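Box 3.1 — From sequence to structure: NIPSNAP domain-containing protein
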Amino acid sequence: MLKFRPAVLLLKPAAAAAQPRVRLSSCPQQEHTTFYEFRTYSIRPDQNAAFLKLTNEKIHLRTAHSELIGYWSVEYGGLNQVFHIWKYDSFSQRAAVRAALAQDPSWISEYISKAIPMLTSQDNEVTYLVPWSRLQKPPRDGGVYELASFQMRAGGPVVWGDAFQAAITSHDAPGYGKLVGAFHSEFGPLNRVHALWWFESADQRAEVRHKAHTDARVVAAVRNSVVHLDSQRNRLMFPCPFSPMK
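Predicted structure (token representation):
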């Protein structure tokens, strides 16, 4: 009697296109290499005026090497502090700029050697513009700027990006402040995002703040985003006379 083995069906794997794609990143990929370095310097209280005067006179030695976006003196949210933003096309460009500064005798003798003793601390953070934001000019020179910083929960923009965008853009409307740029951190505290705003004055900013509390559209957007928020802080700043962004 002949015995037959059961037939074995060999199934070909489904086409690669039909396989589900797993997203491993927690945020959109950067489409460009341009980044913005945020710098915060804390100044000795008795040297604040002298530091600003020296920087006003010698900032051209620094801007000869790379682009300065803006330079502000912090009025509320930090005492005796300055905040500035520098633009770089790549990390290699920044490395070249730092190397050139280290070899620039005028920069070292006329500025750095005098400025460093006036400071108590320095901090920096590397940021990118979020994909839906572009760096904007304020409607006019003058006014005040607010840097609002948000420490979001771990997970990245894939978790909280849409809610953050909705909360920020709800304020970027007629009758509110002007959004200059929205940024997310690359080096420094992670899952941190920043919104840089322009207002006509500190009083106008206060009026806008109260208006937002009664705007159902804004309130709903903010409520949806705060569930992803760990902490936040802000600083109200005045542009220095030599700041490109005034």
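Summary of the box: The beta strands are 35-43, 67-76, 81-88, 119-129, 144-152, 178-187, 192-199, 229-239.
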